[in-house]
Design goal:
With 312 residues, the protein is of the alpha/beta class. The protein has one domain (4-232): TIM Barrel (Alpha-Beta Barrel). It contains 14 helices and eight strands. The protein has helices at 4-8, 27-39, 60-74, 89-101, 119-131, 143-146, 152-161, 175-185, 200-203, 216-231, 235-251, 261-272, 288-299, 304-311, and strands at 11-13, 45-48, 80-83, 106-110, 137-141, 165-170, 191-194, 208-212. An eight-stranded parallel beta barrel has the order 1-2-3-4-5-6-7-8, surrounded by five helices. α2 (27-39) packs across α3, α4 packs parallel to α5 (119-131) and α12 packs across α13 (288-299). The longest helix has 17 residues, at 235-251.
Length: 312
């Protein structure tokens, strides 16, 4: 079985889900947005109904409709990952089966949220999801939102005994320490992705292979250039790009926002010209002041400046 890196590449983008003003999914704009990301070469693969896509606000039926529409829009141009995670093991298993039937390349499974299961419960959850499909499983660890963490010892057992658990999106908030712990307990062909746009250069030396990056839906050219510079040994160039991106990522969490999606949605509208629409409640749209703050930062990252800067 291929590694997650061989399938997903270095930069995997989970697009926001465009909504109409009444919060219905805007499938027409979804297709246009997918074209925008792929045509600008911002991604190596796409993840539908991840956290950035607000899967947690959707019914299972909505998620499946988004997968079908997304698959049709991509039309085989890039590999595709389905976010199949749920608070329920039964629902996760059902969604993983559907994703495989629809032809997705990878199923991403977030740790079960709300119930705060033990490590034994987490392990059982992933064993059940992996057993129901033959496609690779990408573990998604984000304790900030789920309330539970994938402990390194638990991951070690899973990876050693479940052959199709092939990678992890690590976003524990202690990534420099935990990514190393994961690397020490998993084989070299197990793919560790950074799940935090702000910590990519910290995770890559810890056997990280790339990033799952919502922000790369509009700055993916910069993210790709930064990672390429790192792997080519040009750490000075990678650092230069990192510091150019830092203000943008910081601006997504203005005013104490823990969730960057509302401001990211506004930034995507600026960068793409598409009407992405509001987030679903209880999130509220970015304010005029928040958008005014991020606007010049995004303008400074326009695509035309990349070649000149990255060529250095």
């Amino acid at each position: 079985m291929k590694t997650a890196l061989e399938i997903m590449g270095r930069v995997s983008v989970p697009p926001v889900t465009p909504f109409k003003e009444n919060e219905d999914v805007n499938f027409e704009v979804l297709e246009q947005f997918i074209d925008f990301i792929i045509n600008n070469d911002y991604c190596d693969s796409l993840i539908l109904t991840g956290t950035t896509g607000e899967f947690h606000t959707m019914s299972d039926e909505e998620r499946v409709e988004i997968w079908k529409a997304g698959k049709a829009a991509v039309a085989g141009r890039v590999p595709m990952v389905a976010g199949v995670g749920s608070a329920s093991t039964r629902a996760t298993v059902k969604l993983a089966r559907i994703a495989e039937q629809l032809g997705f390349d990878v199923a991403m499974v977030v740790l079960p949220y709300y119930s705060k299961p033990t490590q034994a419960g987490i392990e059982q959850h992933f064993r059940a999801a992996a057993a129901t499909v033959s496609i690779p499983i990408l573990v998604y660890n984000i304790p900030l939102f789920t309330g539970v963490n994938m402990e390194p010892e638990t991951l070690e057992r899973l990876v050693s005994e479940v052959p199709n658990i092939r990678g992890i999106k690590e976003e524990a908030g202690v990534a420099p320490t935990q990514a190393t712990a994961f690397a020490l307990r998993t084989p070299p062909d197990f793919s560790i992705y950074c799940g935090d746009d702000t910590m990519v250069l910290q995770v890559l030396p810890q056997r990280g292979v790339g990033v799952v990056s919502g922000g790369s839906a509009i700055i993916g050219n910069w993210m790709k250039a930064m990672i390429a510079a790192y792997y080519s040994g040009d750490n000075a160039k990678a650092s230069e790009i990192y510091f150019r991106l830092a203000p943008f990522f910081s601006a997504l969490n203005q005013n104490g926002r823990i969730n960057p999606i509302p401001i990211l949605r506004g930034a995507i509208e600026m960068g793409s010209g598409l009407r992405i629409g509001p987030p679903r409640g209880p999130q509220v749209p970015a304010t005029k002041q928040e958008l005014d703050f991020i606007r010049p930062i995004l303008a400074g990252l326009k695509e035309g400046k990349l070649a000149e800067s990255a060529a250095g």
